[in-house]
Amino acid sequence: MLILYAILILCLVLASVFDVRMKKIPNWLSLVLMVSGLIGNAVAVKGLSLGDSGAGLVVGLLLMLPGYIFGSMGAGDVKLMAAIGSVLGITQIVDVVIYSYLVMLVLAVLFVIIKGDLIRLLRRYQALLYGLFSGIVSYQKPDSSEAAGQRVPLAPAIALATCYVVYPTISKVDFMVTSWHL
């Protein structure tokens, strides 16, 4: 199991680097993680069953798919989460998705603040709320020059959330085969 978690963390680090530098997560990286999760869990003594690993893959995919459909994330982020699901299974992938969305929200707000577009963003949503209450719904989509119109790399948020969820499991692994007594 420890080897599988090491592969998971290595793939998350690589995905984060690719996403930050190139704004893209390579398909081969998600595929390596997915195959490692499915095979590793199937053959591990204390791993998930192949069915649980496959179910985690499907749940990870389905929970992230709305973000892709509505344009708030790329397909690479969805495939990465599905691959993480193949390693962790259903019980942990739901937690990873929830924490990922929370970390993504924080990072997106920080990105807007750092770019200096917070006031424009707040004014846009103020106009939207005013329109909802007055019966005239109008939403102005941000243009690509604004921070809200740019893509934020999400793999680092996914990596942070995954490490947060997996840490208790990894911290319980006994690294010492023998104990030393004086």
Question: Can you tell me about this structure?
Answer:
The chain has 182 residues and is an all-alpha fold. The chain has one domain. The protein contains six helices and no strands. The mean pLDDT is 88. The two termini are 31 Å apart. Helix 1 runs antiparallel to helix 2 (27-43), helix 1 (2-22) runs antiparallel to helix 6 (155-171) and helix 3 (50-69) packs across helix 4.
The amount of helix comes to: over 70%
Helix/strand class? mainly alpha
Please count the helical segments. 6
Tally of domains:
1
Output the helix-strand order: HHHHHH
Oligomeric state as shown: single chain
Mean pLDDT level = 88
| β-strand amount | under 5%
Total strand segments: 0
Global morphology: elongated
What's the N-to-C terminus distance? 31 Å
User: If you compute it from the alpha carbons, what radius of gyration comes out, rounded to the nearest whole angstrom?
Assistant: 20 Å
What are the low-pLDDT stretches, counting only 5+ consecutive residues below 50? none
Task: Put the structure in a nutshell.
The chain is an all-alpha fold.
Features:
single chain, 182 residues, mainly alpha, elongated
How are the secondary structure elements laid out?
Layout: H1 2-22, H2 27-43, H3 50-69, H4 75-115, H5 118-134, H6 155-171
Helix pairs in contact: 1-2, 1-6, 2-3, 2-4, 3-4, 4-6
